[in-house]
Amino acid sequence: MGIAFDFAPDRPEHIETILNGLDRYNPETTTVFQDYVTQQCEDRTYDCYANLALLKLYQFNPHLTRDETITNILVKALTVFPSPDFSLGLHLLPPHTLRPASMSSSLPAAGDAPLSEAVQKLTSLNTLLSQADYIGFWNTLDSDDLYADLVADVSGFEELMRVRIAVTVGQSCREVEKGVLESWLQLHGSDFERFIVDICGWGIDNTTGGRGGVVSIPVNKENEAKGTVVRENVNFDQFARVIKRAYEQPA
After folding, report:
1. Helix (H, G, I), strand (E, B) or coil at 175
2. Helix or strand (DSSP H, E) at 245
3. Tell me: the pLDDT tens digits for 98-153?
4. 101 three-class SS
5. Predicted local confidence at residue 101, as pLDDT
6. Phi and psi for 152 in degrees, rounded to 5?
7. How far apart are CA 160 and CA 135, in angstroms?
8. Residues 6+ apart with CB under 8 A from 157
9. 7-15 long-range contacts, Cβ below 8 Å, gap at least 24?
10. In the chain, what is the straight-line distance between the N-terminal and C-terminal CA atoms, in Å?
């Protein structure tokens, strides 16, 4: 059985109580949820259900909206890709935030960007991740100081992203050229080897491969190639009426 959507192992008891009662719609709990988002950013935990509840409160009470909290929720959602959490959060935002900022207006300085521009930039990162364009993701992240400002509140953002990229690679590959994986993770040398061996538990063979070696990934239920045999048990009696109808004379 899969994990329930509203489950979060690190959720505090007082947040659990709010989510399971009518107080989740009480505007006075907005500050409680906002503090909880800050806590998630600091201690690297994640609670999608609580974050969506806060975005829903913002829908009902626009005057309580905090742009920084919204961007932090979206950034945290990026760290659990390829789950649909980012899209779920996006659909709870005001429509004007989903429109690209006017190209004719001057771009604000980092830290002063309107919410719409921040959402557009984070959406571009999510698109690159959904396309498995990890090189494009890192290049885009490094292309503008505004990206650094948006992810600054999320502790260990780059490390969390590398772990998620490694998870998706491990679900689809058995071997990856070392140079390719280095570019996907934006790690090189001893840092790359330490991440692959100590964190991922994979192996590195530097004697083979066209770009300095090959990273071998252990077999798991996702990357194991298995033939699937589909069997359908259909009794001949089930077709009796169909065959009989074929031989009946038209009226």
Report:
1. strand
2. helix 240-247
3. 776 554 344 444 444 588 899 999 999 999 999 999 999 999 999 989 999 999 99
4. coil
5. 55
6. -65, -35
7. 16
8. 75, 79, 151
9. 7/49, 8/45, 8/46, 8/47, 8/48, 8/49, 8/50, 10/43, 10/45, 10/47, 11/47, 11/50, 12/36, 15/47, 15/50
10. 54
pLDDT in tens, 61-111: 999 999 999 999 999 999 999 999 999 999 999 888 877 655 434 444 444
What integer is the mean pLDDT of 39-45?
A: 94
Residue 1 has pLDDT above 60, yes or no: no
Q: Which pTM does this prediction carry? A: 0.82
Q: Angle between the 30-43 and 67-78 helix axes, to the nearest 10 degrees?
A: 40
**Residue that is written with structure tokens 């649909």 in the block:** 84
Q: What is the pLDDT of residues 155-197, one digit of tens each?
A: 999 999 999 999 999 998 889 999 999 999 999 989 999 999 9
**Total count of residues recorded for the chain:** 251
Candidates 78, 115, 74, 73; CA nearest to 98 is 115
| CA 130 vs CA 101, 123, 136, 200, 205: distances in Å | 23, 10, 11, 21, 29
DSSP character for 106? P
